[in-house]
Amino acid sequence: MGKHLVICGHGQGRTGYDPGAVNAKLGITEAGKVRELAKLMSKYSGQQIDFITEQNVYDYRSITSIGKGYASITELHFNAFNGSAKGTEVLIQSSLEADKEDVAILSLLSRYFQNRGIKKVDWLYNANQAASRGYTYRLVEIAFIDNEQDMAIFENKKEDIARGPCISNNRS
């Protein structure tokens, strides 16, 4: 089993900071929350996971250069819609089938959040670029940042999510 890469979605780009989805009521941003989770994950992941927290990989178009040599790449995000949508989902490139890691990550997060499934998409730049290079890539929508229930669960369970055997690759 090789080393894994976790990318935090949004954040510092070439020309500015992209907060991603925002929950103004709670005063939180997607970029901030995924970095908070990555920091917690790093406590439990040992040397098997590298983290990209300081740049917006999409904005820099750097997935092809930074992803080389990893057993898998997981990009962390929070979803947003209308305040009432909720749940977790894993997005993979449309030409691929879900692998064990995709299923395991969704299974872990579905302990806490409504399971919205594994979705095949053809519109994600990073997923398309990774697939074209043969990289194993997924984008994980942890929960809905604009849903108060999802975010209350996240706040109460974030240590468990970070420690989880799938998302943190801590297979104990």
TrEMBL record:
It comes from the Bacteria. GO terms for biological process: peptidoglycan catabolic process. GO terms for molecular function: N-acetylmuramoyl-L-alanine amidase activity. Residues 7-160 form the MurNAc-LAA domain. Keywords: Hydrolase. Pfam families: Amidase_3 (PF01520). The keyword Hydrolase applies. The keyword Electron transport does not apply. This is Amidase/ phage cell wall hydrolase. It comes from Streptococcus anginosus DORA_7.
